[in-house]
Design goal:
Elements (H helix, E strand, L loop, with lengths): L3 E10 L2 E6 L7 H8 L21 H6 L4 E6 L1 H13 L10 E2 L2 E2 L3 H7 L6 E9 L1
Antiparallel strand pairs: 1-2, 1-6, 3-6, 4-5
């Protein structure tokens, strides 16, 4: 039986987290190991799984309800995982989607250009098997 990842990107608007997108991330055990030590060695993960955020959006909570190894990345960790993924063979890198037409790793631009609209971003993820 295989293992897949479920990813939701959330943005914080007026103090509340809202679901922004749900990219389709292909099965990639090297990526899963880097994200949370799933299907690999826990010590190779960027950080130990943190669980679901207490203030997760209602839709993200529904998406992740029947999964395991819940965690999330903040803006800096999103940037790290995207850069790590891009450094691998192009054929294996993922399509992470976009934040208003630009990459998630460009969050610094939005942090300064739109501070009233977008307060923060995060990537919530979990796995099934």
């Amino acid at each position: 039986m295989g293992c897949d990842v479920h990813v939701t990107f959330e943005v914080k608007l007026k103090g509340k987290w809202e679901l922004y997108s749900q990219p389709n991330i292909r099965r990639d055990y090297e990526l899963f190991e880097k994200m949370a030590g799933v299907r690999g060695k826990a010590e190779k993960a960027m950080c130990p799984p943190k669980g679901l955020p207490d203030d997760i959006s209602a839709l993200s909570k529904l998406i992740h309800r029947h999964t395991h190894t819940h965690s999330w990345f903040d803006a800096d960790q999103i940037n790290q995982i995207i850069k790590w993924d891009a450094s691998r063979n192009y054929r294996h890198s993922q399509e992470w989607g976009y934040l208003f037409g630009n990459g998630w790793d460009d969050w610094g631009k939005y942090r300064s250009d739109y501070p009233e609209e977008i307060e923060d971003i995060r990537m919530v993820f979990s796995f099934d098997s």
